[in-house]
Amino acid sequence: MAAPMMELELAAPTPTGAETERGPGVGGGGRQQRQPGAGTSTRTERGPGDEAPLAARLRLVLDSRSNANAVLDILETLEAEEEADILEAIRTCGKLFCTLLQRGDLFVGQLPGEDEAMSGDYSAETKYKMWMRHRYQACVQQLLGLMLHDSEGVQRLCVCTLMRFIQTEGRSPLVQGADDSSCVFPVELLKSVVERLLQVETDSSLLIACFQEYLRYADVRYYTMACTADHIPRVMQKAKGALVPAYQLNVFNLLASIHMPAGQGDPRAFLVKPKRKCAEYKATKLKEQKKKFEQVWLVFLKYKLPIALYKKVLVIFHEAVLPHMSKPTLMIDFLTAAYDVGGAISLLALSGLFNLIHQHNLEYPDFYTKLYSLLEPSVLHVKYRARFFHLLNLFLSSSHLPAYLVAAFCKRLSRLALTAPPHSLLMVIPLICNLLRRHPSCRILLHRPAHTTELSADPYLVDEEDPAKCRALESSLWELQALQRHYHPDVAGAAAVIKKALSEQETDLSALFDLSTPELFEREPRKRACRAPLEFEAADGILGRRRGLVPQLWALE
């Protein structure tokens, strides 16, 4: 229903109401004009039982256009010092401008400047809508500024209110020529929100967490990825190759919050639902979303990352990124570069490389040579130990690997076992035995007798990086024999398996990858100890046997 006409005449070309000073972030000029011909708003003290001042002004503005200047008081309250006043003003602005958008009381089309609008040859109706559109833009700018407020509640409410504006503006477009057959999404407003999320110098994780709930909508997800892909180069080019840790972390947190649907998804999951099926509306197509998802990740990973962020990316990469890319092979350069870095980053890059090797036929030269070099003492103590050994077991599961290569890995693992903690040994020893089961030609490492006890006489070259040249097949697994005298009984028992012929059935390692020292301590009290007789005659009491000399000569009193 159309809004009621203003009670006062609005045709005067110059403003008749008083002008008020504009606060920071309000409007586009230095001063904010009151609506010509509208009544002058005045602040009134709130008495017992009276309606809240902002609610009263909201009612005045919505009831009659002659009270339009009350909008300025509402916007001014957004600059209040008290958090409760700011929150109430944000809620009031949300109700006000959503209602005005739905009514059609905001000017549609290219908006002229405020001075030009008020002095131009426009009808009173058009001037009102132009003036109110300027107030809407001023409100949006203030809310964008309040997204950086110290209060978590203010930040959260600002995000929710701006997203309501996006939803309402999408349903009642401010673009000229939009009709029922067109699909109009307010991209510019969303772009402003995304730019506030991606702060360059401060951590925006709280804001991103507030925004995350809207990423389940296909249109918000699509345009967020598009805006982010455009924003990253602008910021990183200004940095001229330098790291921007806070900004890059914010971008990662935003991208990590985007969960692509496995299928086409819920057709109703749109913040701005298309009025009818629109063939050119890319946000509705999963294929287009995957393209944009791939684009934004490629842009993000194009630039150098901090080491800590490198690890965060690789932790989620193989599950949350690669499966949803239309061309996963585009990530070969990133993953191979990460694999060559060394340390924990190389361990984490293994998951993505395994995906590309296994499913996309990636050929990586000297892959096993690099994998062999990762077997260092530190690998038994890193946080990602379970994932690494799970992948190592997969990479060595093929029965077509050459014997020298498997022998090199067995020998390297055995040498690491000499200084490994007990919980790691209970995983490493069964892994070595499984490798020997898969490759019977390597069992010579168990049966070759040791002719000397000197470590220097071992032909194995521990410092050789090439498994083909380390001479592992000429050595033996004397380390496992040494571990049979380990102080921990479980380790000694696991190493004693090689005393007998290895069974054909492999040991299940899934429960051993995550084994930790606290779990070993928890096991011990649950073990049932065997009773061992200490004497031929059982003792009777503290003083010993009945017919002994001690009970005859001494008594407890």
Poorly predicted runs: 1-31, 40-51
The count of β-strands is 2
The helix/strand order is: EEHHHHHHHHHHHHHHHHHHHHHHH
Shape annotation? elongated
Tally of helical runs: 23
Strand content: under 5%
Radius of gyration: 36 Å
Cα(first) to Cα(last) distance is 104 Å
Largest sheet entry: 2 strands, antiparallel
In which range does the helix fraction lie? Answer: 40-55%
Average pLDDT, to the nearest integer? Answer: 84
| Major sheet strand order | 1-2
Task: Tell me what you see in this structure.
The protein is mainly alpha-helical and 557 residues long. Helices cover 51% and strands 1% of the residues. It has 23 helices and two strands. The radius of gyration is 36 Å and the shape is elongated.
Briefly say what this structure is:
With about 550 residues, the chain is mostly helical. It is built from 23 helices and two strands.
Question: Key features?
Answer:
single chain; 557 residues; mainly alpha; two-stranded antiparallel ribbon; 2 strands
Blueprint (SSEs and pairs):
Elements: E1 20-21, E2 31-32, H1 53-63, H2 70-77, H3 83-103, H4 114-119, H5 124-146, H6 152-171, H7 187-197, H8 205-211, H9 218-239, H10 245-256, H11 286-301, H12 307-321, H13 332-341, H14 343-360, H15 367-373, H16 385-395, H17 403-417, H18 422-438, H19 444-447, H20 478-483, H21 489-495, H22 517-526, H23 549-553
Antiparallel strand pairs: 1-2
